[in-house]
Amino acid sequence: MEQYDVICIGGGPAGLAAALSARENGAGRVCIIERDMELGGILQQCIHKGFGLQIFGEDLSGPEYAQRFINEVRNSDIEVKTDTMVLEITPQKTVYTLNPQQGYNILQAKALILSMGCRERTRGALAIPGSRPAGVLTAGAAQRLVNIEGCRIGRKIVILGSGDIGLIMARRMSLEGAKVLAVAEIMPFSSGLTRNIVQCLEDFQIPLLLQHTVSEIRGRNRLESLIISKVDDKLQTIPGTEKEYICDTLLLSVGLLPEIELPFASGITLDKRSRGPRVNESMETSIPGIFACGNVAHVHDLVDYVTEESRKAGRSAACYVRGELKPAAAINIVAGEGIAYVLPQEIRPANCREFFELFFRVAKVYTNAGVNVFINDKKIKSYHKKHMAPGEMEKLKIKPEMLIAAESIKLEIEQISC
Amino acid sequence: MKYDIVIIGAGISGTAIANALARYERSVLVIEKSNDVSNGASKANSGIVHAGYDAEPGTMMAKFNISGKSLYPELCTRLDVPYRKTGSLLLAFSDKEMQTLEELKKRGDINGVQGLQILDAPDVLDREAHINPDVKAALYAPDAGIVSPYELCIALMENAMDNGVSLWLESPVKNIRRSRRNYLIETSGKSVESSCIINCAGVYADTVHNMLLPQMFTIRPRRGEYFLLDKYAAGQVGHILFQCPSAQGKGILVAPTVHANVIVGPNAEEISDPDATETSARGLKEVWETALKSIPDLPYNQVITTFSGVRAEPSSGDFIIRDYPEMPGYIDVAGIKSPGLTAAPAIAGHVVEMLETQTGKMQQRSAFRERRRELPHFHQLSHEARRELVKKDPRFGRIICRCESVTEGEIVDAIHRNAGAKTLDGVKRRTRCGGGRCQGGFCGPRIIEILSRELDIPREKVRKDNAGSGILFETAAEEVYHGTV
Ligand SMILES: Cc1cc2nc3c(=O)[nH]c(=O)nc-3n(C[C@H](O)[C@H](O)[C@H](O)COP(=O)(O)OP(=O)(O)OC[C@H]3O[C@@H](n4cnc5c(N)ncnc54)[C@H](O)[C@@H]3O)c2cc1C
Ligand SMILES: Cc1cc2nc3c(=O)[nH]c(=O)nc-3n(C[C@H](O)[C@H](O)[C@H](O)COP(=O)(O)OP(=O)(O)OC[C@H]3O[C@@H](n4cnc5c(N)ncnc54)[C@H](O)[C@@H]3O)c2cc1C
User: Fold this and answer.
1) Would you identify the CATH topology of the domain A122-254?
2) Closest CA to B437 of B226, B260, B254, B240
3) CB-based contacts of B126: which residues, under 8 Å, 6+ apart?
4) In order of start, what are the domains of chain B with their CATH numbers?
5) Which of A119, A280, A368, B247 has its CA 20 to 30 A from that of A295?
6) Quick one: pLDDT at residue A1?
7) Would the ipTM clear 0.90, i.e. be above it?
8) Structure confidence by residue, pLDDT tens digits, A343-384
């Protein structure tokens, strides 16, 4: 059995940054395992720009951003196994891998970093009524087919979901010569970046139908048409508002979910809110020495944050291997009123030398609201925010001195009347 | 072209009969209008091997339910099809329903169901932690089980073909004519002669019957809708949980599947179009809300897909399995509603007897292959066996479906078997590729690639299911080149 200090599972931006950081921070033998033929993860199919503004101060495409890290890895002694799938991990950090040439192998690590990214919510998860024809696919799958495989997936297209992926695919399909009839969004707002709404929809005169959803899929073999209905405040379709759109393709961009197969099967505690593994200040999961970062921990909007978070995970893994990451008393962090999820879910003050950051998403759009921080149920701080939306991850700095005698921390949103 | 026996319809009835007939020295052809076997009711049902207390004593449904059920364990072992005895609980929430339990237990005892037992509430809750605590009692049937219905159909057909049975797909029977000694069966494109016909056409069995005989019965389509939940919800339920039957049907169930998902459904809705396998917002809502009565914390966020199946409801109320003196060699296997899946192996045996009565004793084939060529279930293999398999064939070293851990080797194998996969849905039903939580989002493009390569067709010709369900279009350049625009 091959022995490693650190194994990163998944070679997207999270795995790349985590491996580099683990090695830089003194971990010995480090390995990245990636099931695809190439490193880079989802970025390889994101051929649009908009990556790296935070980390490099440059506007890069996905593959360009990934390549910088891939080059660094190639120039280091980090081992890379591509076309290799991790089938199973154990709490003892044994890793079962499969590769067509090298076969079925069992590896042993001192620390594991989970960086498997996320998967897309599907039509089934939304339980959209109607028939089940060809021509209904997730936006990410479509993106792969178009950008990597060079396929043509449709001529007349409707997109459900106005997150960034939906917006970007609206432009992409238009550039491919398809007609994008509309982007429907069930919420009263788009969760995508404003720049994407302008550059991907407005510039192409694609209507954005807010508070609308697909209420029926028609066509027994290939998609023939969709019924789009308006929804009320409870997100229920309003009878009488149905409109038929004749199209051959429906792309779904209706949310991403952390890829939790491996942590679930190995008994790692999962968080109902983030839907990824629960992590502490060091991005360590409920099993000591197994870390998680990137979209597997929680779904990020910007890859730059993935990189930052993963560097932290890599550093922590190196510490763990050296025996410097100590078990210690932990403070629970609770997502209160108005908070969709908060990360980390736990902090151990003993492992926090400087300030650290809480990441959270709000559950709905707020204008003029306060983010209240409670320690031991006492409100100790409130930050005013002009605008917060579920699509944008928020950050909050917590200073170590705030943690003295703390047993719990809770975040809550308070609407400030104007 | 001439066959001894033509079977119309490759659902569980047709394939079970084909498999039973494959043991005899007879030439057999199965004609199916769809592009795959098991594309009718047999692919979209609850997959329950019923204990047998529902059906009225004395009906064919009662008789073949009991005898069919007892054939399941051996049949599924022989053909390597997932089947598991889980036991079922019929839940009662009111005094009236308690009475129903008593009545059904009595009925079951008369039908010959073994081991039926009425459990009181604590006992029920002891067995199933998530059941609604308002439950009053339950009828426990220890030998009810679950099966993968389409995998059974596929296996029956494959094994029948391994033993010489032929299969025509995409061949809807349009007309049947009777000559002096034979029947002439016309499908779109080709026709075939046969001395015997077995009509297993599901919801269309009345149409096929009427091609030869005056109308004697009608089949009404009655739809049932379902949710399928992710494996993460598997802990919710261990037995098949029924609610008390009503005039509409057996009631909504929550049950584990053989692949460790959870199935929820079906409702019962009269429809006019037998092919209307759409789901409806109203129907799905009804199913979910009713199911919550059994399991109040059923997790909606674990739904991975919804679908529906269409029951073939006969005007007679019972299976119609009969021959006609005026039409020698012709047999109807019609109105095969629930428990038709459970009954199929027994019905098949009965049909063989009917044929022997008509045409004389059939001679057993000397070399009948009992088993299918071994199926490579990569993810069930031991570490050692996995290592060996990948060494032998590197295609087993590449996972295509990450949700269900299916390798390229398994997909290629499923394509090249008898009654093999030709479409994305076909691959899904045989290997589970695309049937997991990502519903093909990740593996779809790769399966298209593999189908295109193995069947030697361009990618644009790869289909999801029936004709017209292509997934990719020719690129603009290809269109110009081929003159398609
Ligand atoms: C369509 C789209 C548009 C985007 N646009 C932008 C943008 O404009 N700007 C921006 O900053 N960000 C953007 N993002 C977000 C950014 O790309 C992601 O946040 C980032 O890629 C997540 O990195 P990751 O490493 O966590 O996951 P991924 O990139 O998904 O990488 C995970 C890797 O793990 C591998 N893996 C998973 N399971 C296993 C296993 N069992 N064994 C082996 N390998 C495994 C996968 O193959 C994959 O390569 C976009 C994302 C998408 C999908
Ligand atoms: C919602 C639902 C739930 C059920 N649950 C259960 C259960 O839990 N347990 C159980 O035991 N039973 C159950 N059943 C019943 C069971 O599914 C059916 O009894 C069984 O599948 C019927 O099989 P079949 O072969 O007779 O019909 P089908 O599977 O419908 O097959 C008929 C075939 O004939 C073909 N065909 C039709 N017309 C022509 C033509 N002109 N030419 C050529 N081919 C033709 C069709 O394409 C089809 O493939 C359920 C049924 C439904 C709908």
Assistant:
1) FAD/NAD(P)-binding domain (3.50.50)
2) B260
3) none
4) 1-84+146-218+315-373 (3.50.50.60), 85-145+220-312 (3.30.9.10), 378-461 (1.10.10)
5) A368
6) 87
7) yes
8) 999 999 888 777 788 999 999 889 999 999 999 989 988 999
d(CA A117, CA A257): 9
Among A150, A191, A148, A178, which Cα is nearest to A251's? A178
- Residue B445 exposure: Cα atoms within 13 Å on the Cβ side: 19
How does DSSP assign A166-188, residue by residue?
Answer: HHHHHHHHHHTT-EEEEEEESSS
Q: Is the pLDDT of residue B332 over 70?
A: yes
Strand partners, B141: B88
In chain B, what residues touch A98 (CB-CB under 8 Å)?
Answer: 386, 390, 397-399, 407
* B50 annotated active-site: yes
Please answer whether residues A319 and A350 qualify as being in contact, where contact means their C-beta atoms are separated by less than 8 angstroms: no
Our CA dihedral for A296, A302, A308, A311, rounded to 10 degrees, sits at 40
Distance CA B184, CA B177 (A): 5
Mean pLDDT lowest among A172-181, B98-107, B395-404: B395-404
Note whether A241 and A215 are within 8 A (CB). no
**A221, A236, A250, A296: which to substitute to probe chain B, counting the most B Cβ within 10 Å?**
A221
**Fold of the domain built from segment(s) A1-120+256-325:** FAD/NAD(P)-binding domain (3.50.50)
Q: Could B227 and A127 be called an inter-chain contact, meaning their C-beta atoms sit closer than 8 Å?
A: yes
**Per residue in A92-129, pLDDT tens?**
999 999 999 999 999 999 999 999 999 998 888 888 99
Rounded CA separation A16/A325 (Å) = 22
Mean pLDDT of chain B: 95
DSSP secondary structure, B299-342, as one string: -GGGEEEEEEEEEEEETTSS-EEEE-TTSTTEEEEE---TTHHH
Pocket test for ligand 1, best of A58, A303, A361 (most atoms within 8 A of CB): A303
Q: How remote is the CA of residue B246 from the centroid of ligand 2, in Å?
A: 22
Atom of ligand 1 lying closest to residue A262 CA? 41
Judged by a CB distance cut-off of 8 A, whether residue B441 touches chain A is yes
Residue B206 CA to residue B221 CA, distance in Å, equals: 11
The whole-angstrom separation of Cα A8 and Cα A84 is: 12
Q: What are phi and psi of B186, to 5 degrees?
A: -105, 125
DSSP string, B266-289: ---EE-S-TT---B-HHHHHHHHH
Pocket residues: Cβ below 6 A from ligand 2: B 8-14, 31-34, 39-42, 45-48, 50, 172-173, 200-202, 204, 208, 224, 266, 309-311, 336-342
Strand A356-362 with A339-343, pairing:
antiparallel
Task: Work out the pLDDT band at B258, boundaries 50, 70, 90.
Answer: very high
Confidence of residue B485 (pLDDT cuts 50, 70, 90): low
Report whether B400 contacts B438 (CB < 8 A): no
Contact map slice: B 301-320 vs A, CB within 8 A: 301, 303-307
Average pLDDT over chain A, rounded to whole? 94
- Global pTM? 0.94
Return the domain boundaries, chain A.
1-120+256-325, 122-254, 328-418
**Please, where are the H alpha helices in B27-83?**
60-78
CATH 3.30.1360 fits A328-418, yes or no: no
A406: which residues sit within 8 A by CB, 6+ positions away? Answer: A331, A349, A375, A376
Report chain B's terminal Cα–Cα distance, integer Å: 40
